Amino acid sequence: MKHQITLVGGQILPVYVGIKEFNPDKVHFLVSNDSKNGISSLKSQIQKVKYSEYICNPFDFYEIKSICEKIVEKIESEDEVSFNLTGGTKIMVLAAQSVIHEKNLQGFYINQDDTFLKLPEYKQSKINTEISIKEFFTLSGHNIFSYKELSDYTNNDFNVVKTIESFANTNKKYSSITNHFRRKYQKIPQTGKESLQNGVIVTWDTKSIVAVFNGKTIFNISSDKAMDLFFNAAWWELIVAQEVSKWNKIKEICLGLELPFKTDNKIMKNEIDLLINTGKKLFFIECKSGNVKQEDINKMKIIKQTYGGLISKSVLVSRYMVNSNILEKCKELDIEVFYSYAFNNIEINPVSKLITTLNNINAKGSI
Question: What is the pLDDT along the chain (367 residues), one digit of tens a residue?
């Protein structure tokens, strides 16, 4: 029988990875009063594994060591025992490590680069376990969410995206139209007609948008997703998603992922423009076709901390150069910034280079 003694801290993902990678028959969780609630979301994921919980003072070396020794003493001598040292406080790790050395046992520490360190020989090996998006979110206590996939979009939708991109890159009236609607409407009506100060007249319904200037049509699209693609700037998200989908590290990709409140699943709490799963970590990508604001960066920070943890990465993909204040804040919060500026059909740092950026981020590890 395989036993795993696991130190539990603020991050649940390395606890789950340790269980999934080494497949123990029973897990002994060493928790504090602060960390004991963290494993509640884990239990539904390990239903076939037996487990016990032991509450300790995470800063009392001798108490922690005594608990570990008592656990080991109750295990049959022919059974296999290992320690997951990834979580918990430094004192918890030191206490568990002393038991490993004194009793000639095994242990491991899960690194941030998809490897684990095996004790006591300190040999580094690759982690084989892959985690799905559903598993990632369930571990954070959020198992209800919805999203779109690239296959949900038709060839016509992609042609519409090209039309919007061309209009946005070559006609300054694109910004005046989008800014007008952003200022006037919190939620744009299903049908309507707007006359802008610069003389542009925009008429729309759920399947079409037409812009006329001086009696001449300057923009015209038709799609079931016309309003989302244009007014909500989903066209930019789709362009980024198309390029990112070519990355050979991707296992899953989600567009417009929506997470409702637990208390009312009809009200959205957070929306993630683009979510990539490599099987090892999540990449939260915020796609901005207009100006980037402080609240956009704050949102990215919260989403990463809440749903992805330390192992995840946040990436801002902006259509324009971002100002120095935003860059400084992104650096402080470990948010990678990629901007693809295009105007008059001249592309600077095109989106096609984004995969190179993602490869560099992935190679650097998680922190």
Answer: 999 999 999 888 899 999 999 999 999 999 999 888 888 888 888 888 999 999 999 999 999 999 999 999 999 989 999 999 999 999 999 999 999 999 999 999 998 888 999 999 899 999 999 999 999 888 887 777 889 999 999 999 999 999 999 999 888 899 999 999 999 998 899 999 999 999 999 999 999 999 999 999 999 999 999 999 999 999 999 999 999 999 999 999 999 988 877 666 666 677 899 999 999 889 999 999 888 989 999 989 988 888 887 778 999 999 888 889 999 999 999 999 998 765 555 566 778 888 988 988 887 654 3
Q: Would you list the DSSP string of 176-197?
A: HHHHHHHHH-SS--SSEEEE-T
Domains in the chain, please, with CATH?
A: 2-128 (3.40.50.10770), 146-152+232-364 (3.40.1350.10), 155-164+171-231 (no CATH)
Give me 277's structure tokens: 């799963």
What's the pTM? 0.84
Sequence-separated (6 or more) residues with CB below 8 Å from residue 17: 110, 127, 129, 131
- How many other C-beta atoms lie within 10 A of the C-beta of residue 208? 14
